[in-house]
C-alpha cells in the first residue's frame, strides 16, 4: 500500500482508544447502579439493544458489505450471512448444552438465555474490530471525514455498550466479569485499526465477508436470543414499552447513519 502519513496513525489510535474508554465508562456507571434499579431497567435495555443491533445490521453493516462486494454481486455476502447464522446456532447449541442444568418435560434446556451473553461478546468483538478497520480506511481517504466518522462511532457505541452490559448481566455474568470481558472486547477496535494500517490491501479483499459475518452475529443474537426473552412480558404496558424502545434503538442508529 502507499506510504501513509504517520501522524494519521496518532489520530486513528486516539479515536479508537477514546471510544473504547468512553463506552466502558458508560457501562461502568451502569454497573454501579443499585441492584434493584439494574433489575428494573435490564428489560428496557434489552429492548433498546434489540433495536440498535437490528438497526446497525440492516442500515449499516449489510449495505456496507454489499457495497464492498458490488463487483461480484450480493451472493457472496448473503452466503456468508447464512453461514454465520448457522455457525452461531451451533455455537449457541454448545453453550446451551454446557449450561443446561434443568430441562422441561420435553427435554428442552431451560437456560437458553445463558448463551446470549457469550454470543453478544463474540459479535461485539467482531464489530469493534470492524470499527477499527473502517476508522483507518476512512482516515486514510480523508482526515476530516475520519474525524466525523470517529465521533459517530463513539456516540453510537455508548448505547450499544449499555445494551451489551445488560445482556451479559441477564445471562449470569457478574459485574466484574462483565466489565473485564467488555474491556477485552473493546481492545479489538485498536487491534483492527492497527492491522488495517499495516495490511489494508489484504483486509480490503475480505472486508465484505468480515462485515457480513458481523451482521450475521447481530441478526442471530437479536432474533434468536433477545426477542424471545421479550415475549415473556405479555402485559400491554410491557409490550408498548418494548416496541417503543426497539423503535427508539433503530431510530438512533438511523439518525447516526443519516449524518
Structural account:
The structure is a single chain. The protein is mainly alpha-helical and 259 residues long. Helix content is 84%, strand content 0%. Helix 1 packs antiparallel against helix 4 (116-141) and helix 4 (116-141) packs antiparallel against helix 5. The two termini are 29 Å apart.
Average pLDDT: 78
The oligomeric state is single chain
How far is the N terminus from the C terminus?
29 Å
Instruction: List the helices and strands in order.
Output: HHHHHHH
Could you list the spans in which at least 5 consecutive residues all have pLDDT below 50? 99-111
Largest sheet: none
**Secondary-structure-derived class:** mainly alpha
Top keywords for this entry?
259 residues; mainly alpha
TL;DR?
It contains seven helices and no strands. The chain has helices at residues 6-31, 35-68, 75-99, 116-141, 143-170, 175-230, 236-258.
Topology:
Elements lengths: L5 H26 L3 H34 L6 H25 L16 H26 L1 H28 L4 H56 L5 H23 L1
Helix pairs in contact: 1-4, 1-5, 1-6, 2-5, 2-6, 2-7, 3-6, 4-5, 4-6, 5-6
Amino acid at each position: 500500500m502507499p506510504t501513509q502519513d504517520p501522524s494519521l496513525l496518532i489520530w486513528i489510535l486516539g479515536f479508537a482508544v477514546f471510544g473504547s474508554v468512553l463506552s466502558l465508562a458508560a457501562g461502568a456507571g451502569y454497573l454501579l447502579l443499585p441492584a434493584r434499579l439494574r433489575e428494573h431497567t435490564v428489560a428496557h435495555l434489552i429492548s433498546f439493544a434489540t433495536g440498535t443491533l437490528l438497526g446497525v445490521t440492516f442500515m449499516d453493516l449489510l449495505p456496507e458489505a454489499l457495497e464492498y462486494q458490488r463487483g461480484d454481486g450480493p451472493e457472496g455476502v448473503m452466503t456468508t450471512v447464512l453461514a454465520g447464522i448457522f455457525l452461531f446456532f451451533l455455537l449457541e447449541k454448545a453453550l446451551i448444552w454446557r449450561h443446561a442444568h434443568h430441562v422441561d418435560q420435553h427435554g428442552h434446556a431451560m437456560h437458553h438465555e445463558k448463551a446470549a451473553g457469550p454470543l453478544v461478546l463474540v459479535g461485539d468483538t467482531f464489530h469493534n474490530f470492524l470499527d477499527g478497520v473502517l476508522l483507518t480506511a476512512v482516515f486514510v481517504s480523508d482526515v476530516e471525514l475520519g474525524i466525523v466518522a470517529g465521533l459517530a462511532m463513539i456516540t453510537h457505541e455508548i448505547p450499544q455498550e449499555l445494551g451489551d452490559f445488560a445482556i451479559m448481566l441477564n445471562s449470569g455474568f457478574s459485574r466484574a466479569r462483565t466489565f473485564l470481558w467488555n474491556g477485552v472486547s473493546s481492545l479489538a477496535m485498536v487491534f483492527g485499526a492497527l492491522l488495517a494500517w499495516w495490511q489494508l490491501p489484504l483486509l480490503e479483499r475480505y472486508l465484505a465477508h468480515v462485515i457480513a459475518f458481523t451482521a450475521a452475529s447481530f441478526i442471530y443474537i437479536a432474533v434468536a436470543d433477545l426477542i424471545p426473552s421479550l415475549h415473556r412480558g405479555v402485559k400491554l404496558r410491557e409490550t408498548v414499552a418494548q416496541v417503543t424502545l426497539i423503535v427508539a434503538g433503530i431510530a438512533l442508529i438511523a439518525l447516526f447513519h443519516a449524518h
